[in-house]
Structure formats: C-alpha cells, structure tokens
Amino acid sequence: MWLKSFYDLRSTYGKSCSRSSSPPTGKAGQAPRRLSMRFTTRKEATTMAKRKKSAAPAATATTPAPASDSGNSNKSSKSNKSNKPAKSKKANRAKTATKARRSAPYLAALGAYGFGKLEPVLLAALVTEDPILLIGKSGTGKTFLLNSISEALGLEHRHYNASLISFDDLVGFPYPDEARDSIRFLETPATIWGAESVLVDEISRCKPEHQNRFFSLVHERRVQGIALEKLRYRWAAMNPSSPDQGAGSEAYVGSEPLDPALADRFAVVVEVGDWEQLSLKDRTRVADPSGEGARSDDGGRLARAVAGWRAEFLEKLPTTPKPVLAYACVATTELGQAAIRVSPRRARLLARTLLAATLVAGEATSALFLKVLRCSLPHVAWGDAPAEVAVEAAHQAAWAVCMAEEDERWVHLFHTERNLAKKLEILIRQCPSRDSGTLAVEQLIANESRARAAAFCLAAYPAALDGKLRVGAEAVADFARIASELLTIDGNITWSQRRSDPDIPNPELERTGKVLMRLQGPRLARARQLFYWCIVNQQAIDDPNAFEAEFNECVTTIRDAIESGDWNRGVAA
C-alpha cells in the first residue's frame, strides 16, 4: 500500500510514510548480515583454474612411461611423444602466421608512407564502411592515400574537388522524362550514380550551399533523397581551418572550419602528420621518385583482408561485446563532463570503430582504444581540438571499466553517471546481482553529498522495501536509516539577524520557498520534507530548482518502471 501511495501519489505523504520507518531486521530479529562481494574471489578463482588447467598437461608429459619389453609399446610411447609437440608447433606456426599477416603494413604496400601508427584506425573504417575525414597540411599524402585505397580495393571511384564542384557535376543534368511528370538526371562519367567510393577533396573550401548537400551523402548515402545503392565508402580531405593556423604556420586562405553537423557525420577524423612526424625510413621512401605515377597494386592483399574482417565484423555486430559498449558509454560520459560534447550518434560510431579495430589488430589494448578515441573526435575539423589531458583522462576511466569483471564494470558504470535519476535507471534495468547493487548503494552514500544521498535514498526506499530493486538487505537497511530521518523531522533552525531588522527570514527557507510555491499535491509534500531536512541539517543547496527536479525525476523513474514492469528484467530472486 505504501509503494502505491508514495509513487502513484494517492494519499497524503505523512500518513503514507509513517509505516516502517525503522530499518528491517533479519531472521529472529537479528540485524541483516553484511553481504560479501566476490569480485576478487572470482578473479582469483579464474586465475587458479587457468593455472591448474595449464599445469595438468605438463604434469602428464613429465610422468615417466611404464617400463615394457614390447617394441610396439615403445613405438607407441615414442609416437605419442612426437605427435603432441608436432600439433602444438603447427598451432603456433598458424598463430604466428596470422599475427604476421595482421601486423604487416597494408598501406605502405600501396606506396602510402607515414600512416603506420594510424593504420589500425583507417583499416577499421574500411571494415565498418563508415566515413573518413583526413585533415593535414598540403602535400602530406591525404588524397594519394584515399585514391590508392580505392585502386587496391578495385572500386568504382569518384574524386571531386569541393571548391570547384557544382551540383550538376555531382548528379548530372536534370531533364523531364517522356511523360513529363518526373525529373531524371543525365549521367556522365563523373556523376555519382554507380560509384562505390567517393572522395570529396578540399571539403573545407566548399561553398556553404553545396556543403549542406553533402550531409545526406556522407551519412545516409543519398542524394536528393535517392539512395545510392552501390556506394560503400565516403571520404573527404581538407587542410587545417583558418582558426587552427598559429603564427608562422602556412596560411590556407579559404579553408574554413567545417560545420559541426557535417563533421559529426565522419566516423573517423584523422590528423595526418607532416615531415617531422615521419620516421627516417619513411622520409627516404617519400623522397624516392621511382614509384611516382604507378598504380597501387598489392595483389589483392588489402581487399582480401578487408573482406575477411568485414564478414567477421558483421557476424559480431549484433552481439557487440559488452566491454566495447562500456568503453564507448563511459568515454562519452567522461568527455561530456569535461565540456567536450560527443553526440549519441558518435558514441555509436565509436563502438563500431572499436569493434572493427579490435578485429584488425587481433586484440584489444589500451593503446589501440586510445588511438581510436582520439580519431573519433571531430572537433578539430571546426577548430576546437579537445585538450589531450581530458581525452586521456576519459580513456583511462573508460578503459578501467572496459577491462573490469562484469559486476565490477557495472559498478563503474553506475558511479560514472552523475544524474541521480539515471543512476536509479541503471540500478533498475542493468544491475547484474544483489551484491553489486548493495556495493553501488553503499559507495553512493559514502561519496555523494549528504543532501544528494538523502534524495536518492528517499526516492528509492519504498521500492527497495517492497523488493523491487536488486539490492541486498544491507542496502535496504541503509535506505531505511537515511530515509527515516526525512520521514519525521525534528530540529531547530537558526540564522543571524540584524537588530535593526528583526523580520529578515531564514535565507534557505526563502530560497526553497520560491520553489515550493510552484509545486502542489504529493510532489509539494515530498519536496518540502526534503528541503526541511536539508535546512535542519545545514546542508546547503546550490540550486534548489535543479535539486528538486532531479529528486522528482528519481521518483517518476521508479513510478514509470512500476507501471511498465521494465525492471523485472533486472530483478532476480
């Protein structure tokens, strides 16, 4: 009855909350026992099991064979000894060959040098078939690289100069059909129809009216609302925009910052290095004119590799690994907290690129994920490159979550979310176990301010007491301990006044009173109770409006879950 009255708001707040104000106890009136966490134990158990499994064959191999005078027995024993190592050597050779194929440079084989460090990210974009934007100074090989890739993949390619192109060059000349009830386009060898890859060069020099037309081409593979069925790859290249050019740098007059909405449609945004970033070997290769004008041909090696990775990518995409999703979510959240906005669309593109890069590299490493994260931020395209320290901090937080055990990963996700209502939603729908839920609640109470912890506990307590939340008895007791302080408030409020003006009201009562004046019904009663508790306990509230709105969102989150039954997926017996 209390659950319905609190969340469905059918009775007065005071009567509803007068029940069960003391923490629940265990059997026979005992206090609930502390639930033990198993994060370390599970990891140790897994490590011990692996060691035991790897040690077993070794013990068998060192056990001497029983003595026998039979030649057949000796022959059999000798055969067993030789066969096992042979099988192991064969597997090792195959593993080494696979690693060699993956580690051998693909782009250098096309004559594109200096891209070795960026190769996993660029190859990942070829696997996902998501758009690529290269940014770099003139003569750094941006256009050559993308044209060479199209040749190596055997694509029907189109190369447009955005500073010169007109819309007719892109789609052809319009003319009415025979019935004169629709418009068709007269195709030329340069029109985009039938193309499998498109390179829009000098995109930062494009006229604004033409730049807008590239939106649907880059992201949706459409022109004038017509789908380009054969188009797979959309690439672009540009010089640094004018605001990025410091004193003493080359002035690229006419290279304007890219529209953030257009830049955000490129999954991978790579800053191409200049001569100073080339290794000595690459400098010699770049300076050698012997291969100039030759067609990029690696014997189909890149095409075969991309096709294989693409098939594996499409197979894994429907069940994208949880660590990849966790990394993308946490990195996006952490960057947002550092005032570096990452759109929801880009979070999805980041997850796609991470998955593909892992397949290309053959393993997931911290360095690889950081490289992908750096190349997934489009801000440099409009002259607002994010601070490297902020990017690395977001990566460290996301990587810690990515590499954690499943329960521990969820706890990290819970705490990286700042909004209390979203924390509740994560607890309701994603909590993997009661132990994890209990740990998360305990850490929230310890780390949040008293006022925010009180708001969270008051909103969650009725649902937790009714068994709706996936938390243990200890967490329910913590909810009860804190919420009971808000159910019955008994205290004094003191403040300073001038003798000349004894009618000055309490400043906190005045600030919160302005918020309460706008509320009514049970929401008013809940907010009044929370505000009065904060004032009595001298808990300052920076923004009463935002604080009450967040608290009310917590209540409505649980109410919506009760009505829809969504949280049944996250609650186990």
CA-CA gap between termini: 22 Å
In the CATH hierarchy, the architecture of the domain at 131-266 is: 3-Layer(aba) Sandwich
CATH topology of the domain at 131-266: Rossmann fold
**Poorly predicted ranges:** 9-45, 56-87, 568-573
Topology:
Layout: H1 2-7, H2 13-16, H3 39-62, H4 71-103, H5 119-128, E1 132-135, H6 142-152, E2 157-161, H7 167-171, E3 173-176, E4 183-186, E5 197-201, H8 208-220, E6 222-223, E7 226-227, E8 233-238, H9 260-263, E9 268-271, H10 280-287, H11 301-316, H12 322-337, H13 344-361, H14 366-374, H15 388-402, H16 406-416, H17 420-430, H18 434-447, H19 450-465, H20 473-487, H21 507-516, H22 521-536, H23 544-564
Parallel strand pairs: 1-8, 1-9, 2-5, 5-8
Antiparallel strand pairs: 3-4, 6-7
Helix pairs in contact: 5-11, 5-13, 11-13, 12-13, 12-15, 13-14, 14-15, 16-17, 16-18, 17-23, 18-20, 19-20, 19-23, 21-22
Describe the structure.
- The protein is α/β, with parallel strands linked by helices and 573 residues long.
- Among the domains are: 131-266, P-loop containing nucleotide triphosphate hydrolases (Rossmann fold, 3-Layer(aba) Sandwich); 316-448.
- The chain is 53% helix and 6% strand.
- It has 23 helices and nine strands.
- The protein has helices spanning 2-7, 13-16, 39-62, 71-103, 119-128, 142-152, 167-171, 208-220, 260-263, 280-287, 301-316, 322-337, 344-361, 366-374, 388-402, 406-416, 420-430, 434-447, 450-465, 473-487, 507-516, 521-536, 544-564; strands at 132-135, 157-161, 173-176, 183-186, 197-201, 222-223, 226-227, 233-238, 268-271.
- It has a five-stranded parallel beta sheet, sandwiched between helices. Strands 3-4 form a two-stranded antiparallel ribbon.
- The relative contact order is 0.10.
